[in-house]
Amino acid sequence: MKTTIKGIAKSLLFFILWGLGVGLIPIPDYSDPAIWRLFAEMIPLLITIVLTYGFVYFDKQDIKLGLKDHLLKKIFLGIIFGLIWLGLTIFIIYILGGLSIDSKNSVDGLFIWFIALFLNTIMQELVFRGYIYQMLKKDNRIVAVVVSTLLFTLLHGGAFEAGLIPVLNVITMSLFMTAVLEYADSLWPAIIIHYIWNAIGALVLGLVLLADDYINIYNMNFHGNELITGGAVKIEGSIIVLVLNLLLMIYFIQLKAKKKEHKEKRKSV
Fold this sequence. Notes:
The protein has 269 residues and is mainly alpha-helical. It is built from 10 helices and 2 strands.
């Protein structure tokens, strides 16, 4: 019990120090919005990396991120399920008559915007499913899931103003990413899945809300029931996303169980 409380305290300290670093370190003033956003995402990522190495050093124990093992296989897994997750969401909402393309925007520095968003995605996954989750998991996996999910939801606190479904979508999305991490033993698939959701869903199609200054190539119209389309918060307020989050989470939990069972059978042979 003492170890668990100590782990939670370290998680909160990590999160608070991270928040202070992000809030206090100034972003260089660039007139180009793409370059400004790049630095706005780079600085929190660097803070995350420094804090992670610092906490691991003082803990005197490693955390398992699986960033080097079977890299191409893990990235491919992320691409496939990222496209399935976003693709099914868009397809179902479209079939139900909830989506149509309105117009297209001219965007400068598109490649830089994609890089900036990739840095943001790495940062988020490294904060919540990196040190915090891996450290707590060593003592109690359930506590690790609960604490990392609560902190992830807190970071996306704007969902609370939008209603119950957006909050549940944030929670279940975090649980889905954790299930992917557990199955793959690597942070890469979660990073790639999360990135595809934001990059294609937000930067390309404008279906996902990001920071106000982020651009999008297409403008989409939402029609019909807001429970299906997500309304003002776009697809992250859709009940379709909630259902898919739960189904994909359960699928990866089952994959993990089968993987564990297979390993145990090999050991017993």
